[in-house]
Specification:
Largest sheet of chain A: 5 strands, parallel
Structural class of chain A: mainly beta
Largest sheet of chain B: 3 strands, mixed
Largest interface: A-B, 32 and 31 residues
Radius of gyration of chain B: 23 Å
Number of strands of chain A: 15
Number of helices of chain A: 0
Oligomer: heterodimer
Chain lengths: 94, 160
């Protein structure tokens, strides 16, 4: 497992082998499966993923209430208790 | 800003003032407040931190009765009779409006991270830079951490 700078990890978080986390905020009780990659992401309380969650960060256009925002570098914003099965590629943006 | 001091508002300079409550100044006092102005008025914005007297509640009630619910509206209404002193922030101020703002806030908060290792770090772990590890956290062999990184209590990196 490799954790890169500007990452905060909450309490009781498990990160499984061969996973990389970069510039991200993981709230408490999250579990990130093996062989995953997370960049520029915010994971809410209790997010659970199985292996191979792929969240690369990049530029994205985000629509909130019909207003578009250009975000220079974002992975995913995942709400609390979100659960992923294995092999889940994610496009940038909330 | 301290309780009991004269009414004041914490302000900062902003590159994007149109997203906030913008103030104009006159002889060391806040002259006016403009919420999310469409035209450039000033680059000084309210941070949302105030030290106000209890007279503000009368203006809040009046604003609510008029269907205006922003605190800045009440502050603007009070300026004619209750001077408000601007206090410029000498620290870092980052607004959190959108979810991705949390990433910038997190990175900024970690810049002054104090190294604190309370958990268990197994052998064959590489830690570079400032890393805070909470109590009962276990960092398993084969893990590499490049700070600044903050890890809470009871967290585990599984064995590789």
């Amino acid at each position: 497992m490799t954790i890169f700078p500007s990452t905060s990890i909450g309490n009781s978080v498990t990160i499984e082998p061969y996973t990389m986390v970069k510039n991200s905020l993981l709230m408490s009780n999250c579990t990130i499966g093996a062989h995953s990659y997370l960049s520029h992401s915010v994971l809410g309380y209790g997010v659970k993923s199985q292996s191979h969650l792929m969240v690369p960060g990049s530029e994205a256009y985000v629509n909130i209430a019909d207003e578009f925002f250009k975000v220079p570098h974002i992975g995913s914003i995942l709400g609390e208790d979100t659960t992923f099965g294995p092999v889940w590629p994610s496009s940038p943006g909330p | 800003m301290k309780a009991g001091s004269r009414p004041s508002a914490l302000v900062v300079e902003s590159e994007n003032p149109s997203k906030y409550g913008v103030v104009t100044l006159d002889r060391g006092a806040i002259k006016s407040v403009h919420e999310k102005p469409t035209e450039m008025i000033s680059n000084i914005i309210l941070t949302g931190m105030y030290c106000l007297s209890d007279s503000i509640f009368r203006f809040i009630d009046e604003c609510i009765a008029a269907g205006e619910y922003g605190l800045s509206n009440a502050v603007q209404s009070s300026l004619g009779t209750h001077p408000l002193t601007p206090v410029f922030s000498d620290g870092l101020w980052i607004d959190a409006v959108y979810p991705w703002d949390l990433l910038e806030l997190n990175a900024a908060a970690l810049e002054n991270l104090a190294v604190r290792t309370s958990g268990k770090v197994e052998s064959q772990v590489v830690i570079a830079g400032p890393v805070g590890i909470g109590e009962e956290t276990v960092i398993r062999a084969g893990t590499t951490i490049y700070g600044p990184v903050l890890i809470g209590t009871g967290a585990t990196s599984a064995r590789m």
